Every structure is written in C-alpha cells, then in structure tokens.
Amino acid sequence: MQSLSPIHKTIVGIQFLFVAFGSTVLVPLLVGLDPATALFTAGIGTLIFHMVTKGKVPIFLGSSFAFIAPIISASKQWGMSGTLAGLIGVALVYFIMSALIKWQGQKLLARLFPPVVIAPIIILIGLSLAPTAIDMAKGNWTLAIISLATAIIVLTFGRGMLKLLPVICGIIVGYITAIIMGVVDFSAVEAAPWFALPSSIAHFQLPQFAWEPFLFMIPVAIAPVIEHIGDIYVVSAVAEKDFVKSPGLHRTMLGDGLACLFAAFFAGPPVTTYSEVTGAMQITRVSHPQVIRIAAITALLISVAGKLTALLQSIPTPVLGGIMIMLFGSIAAVGIQNLIQSKANLNETRNTIIIGVTLTAGIGGAVVYFGTFSISGIGLSALIAVLLNLILPKTK
C-alpha cells in the first residue's frame, strides 16, 4: 500500500466518492426517498462502521440495491413511514449474525467459508454487476469508451499522483466530451439552492413502528448479510490483510447493522459494503481506511451543497458506465487471484461442482421463492456454495 500525503489522500478519497456517488443517489430516486439524505446516511453510516471496526477496514457503505423492490412493495402496503420502521428489522438480522459469529468464532467461518466457497462468491460480486455497467454504458457508447479509455491510459501510463486518479480523469474527460456533444442538462444545477439540509434533517420524524413491515423486511436482509461476508473477504484480499480475524467479522457485521439502523431512523435506504469502491482500491492500490473516511466526510459535505449535488447528478450515466466496466471486472479478477493463492485443487470433483454450480446459479439469475419471499443473486449463490461445501464428501 502506497504512503500518501494528506493532500493526496484527500484527492483519492474524493475520487472514491465519485465511484460510489451514482449508485448511492440512484437507489433513493428509484424508491421515492431523498438523494441528499442517502448521501448523508451513507457518510454517517460509513463513519459509524469505521468506529465499530476500530478504523481498520477500508469500506464505504452506500445505498443497497437489494432493497429497491422490497421498499417499493412495502411502501404501497404500509406507506414510507411504516417501511422505514420495517427497515429496522434489517439491522436486527445483522446484530443476530454478529452475535452468532462472535459466539462461534473463527471455527465456524473456516467451516462455512473455505477458499473454494469464497472465491466464486467474489467472482460473482464482480460479474453480477457487469450487466449494470453495460446498461449504464449503452446509452452512449462513445462517451463510455472515451471515459474507459482515459481511465485505462492514466492507470497504465500515469506516473506519481496521476496514476492514482484514473477514475476522476476518466469522468472529467467523459464529462467535457458530453458537454461538447451537448448532452448535459444544466437546468437542475441552475434551479438548485447553494445550501440545503437533507429533508430527513430539516423535517426529522421518528419512523412509525409496525410489526407487518418489520417482519416483511427480515427475510430480505439475509442475502445482503451473506454478501457482506463475501465483501469482507474481497476487501481483505485487496488490502492484503485479514479483516476476518482483526477486527473480526462480528465487528464488521455489527458496524453494517448500526449503519442500517441509523439510515432507517433518518429516512435513508439501507446501506451495504460498496464493491465499486473496492474495485477502485484494487486498480489504484490505495486501501488506507483514512481515504475511505475522507470519502464519507465528502459525502456529508455534498449532501448539504445543493448545486454541487445537482452538478454531480448531471454527469451522463454512460460516462460512469464506462468506468464501472473496468472496476467491476477488477473485482472478478480478485476472486480468480484468491483461487490461485489458496491453491484450491480444481482436479477435485467436489471443488469443481461447488465453483461450477455457484457461478452458474449466480450468472444465470436463479431465483428461489418461499411464498412472498424470494432469494436470488449473490445471496442465493452464496447459500448454494455453503450448502454444497457442507454436503459433498471430501476426498479421502
């Protein structure tokens, strides 16, 4: 990990927020919440996470896509205030898992998540996001390719500080190109105030608790909790430190849960570990936790700067999509690297089955329904990998 000056850390931290910005504000826009509030709860949630994990784990917590459909469905039945109260149940699941891991310790994790289980989950975390990157880019492939090419050139041929800023360089060049092409709309920037408190702060109200949405959200939280475990292993591989042991998975789980609880009380979407930022750490080779905390503080500042928020939202989606193509692919590469470093025996039938079925289920979009509850994506694939690892006999 590179040793950076405070100024360099600040610039890289702002870059990491650029990476997380699009997804963090997109989720609230889709479910009817305030984007500025989402930035506020993501920033505070990330700082809460770092406090709980003793400032050791370089993770940024942003709005979770896993809750888009559940929030929309719950808000139709119980209204947004009831839905936000239901999201308290998400935090409860994290707390229970944290206590279970603390109780059983490393022995349980070694049994449930050996390298042959974790590696395909890491690969899936990157590959499952690939359609999102392509969907973002296909609106204007010219902008996407220009942004991607700029980031690759800076990363490959850049020297010194410039080499640490491929994302910012890609976005700036793509944005300038978009302005020249006349595809940037500045009307929202002109209309936005210079300073505005997030609606959750200006009009704070406690969630109206009800059992129905609370119980509705609990099963939904299972998949993000499983994905959280995979993300911690990804970050450990990128930073070349074992965060599962220190500060411990029970602490990261608790930190994520407390951040989700804070978001529920301040009308923000549940937060989750952001693979986009992990991908940025992988390509820049910067994984200092202080850099992530700078990104969190920047999110807080932007949440009250109306014109700046509007300006960032004016960045065309294809510009961000081109950058995401590189970031998400780098996460999948970490999973492959994990398989190689763990020296997993791919000639062993059980290992081939676990990896093959896990990847196929995840990439193929398998979904399992239990009444009104369903599990899919990384959550389902991780569950399949864990079960296969427990069931299949090991070679004698």
3D architecture notes:
52% of the residues are buried. The chain has 20 helices and 4 strands. Helix 9 (166-181) packs antiparallel against helix 18 and helix 13 crosses helix 20. It is globular and about 65 Å long. The model has no long low-confidence stretch (mean pLDDT 85). The protein has helices spanning 6-31, 35-52, 68-86, 88-104, 106-112, 115-127, 130-137, 141-157, 166-181, 187-191, 199-202, 211-220, 222-239, 244-265, 275-284, 289-303, 306-313, 317-341, 349-364, 377-391; strands spanning 61-63, 271-273, 367-370, 373-376. The strands form 2 sheets. Strands 1-2 form a two-stranded antiparallel ribbon. Strands 3-4 form a two-stranded antiparallel ribbon. The chain has 396 residues and is mainly α.
SSE blueprint:
Blueprint: H1 6-31, H2 35-52, E1 61-63, H3 68-86, H4 88-104, H5 106-112, H6 115-127, H7 130-137, H8 141-157, H9 166-181, H10 187-191, H11 199-202, H12 211-220, H13 222-239, H14 244-265, E2 271-273, H15 275-284, H16 289-303, H17 306-313, H18 317-341, H19 349-364, E3 367-370, E4 373-376, H20 377-391
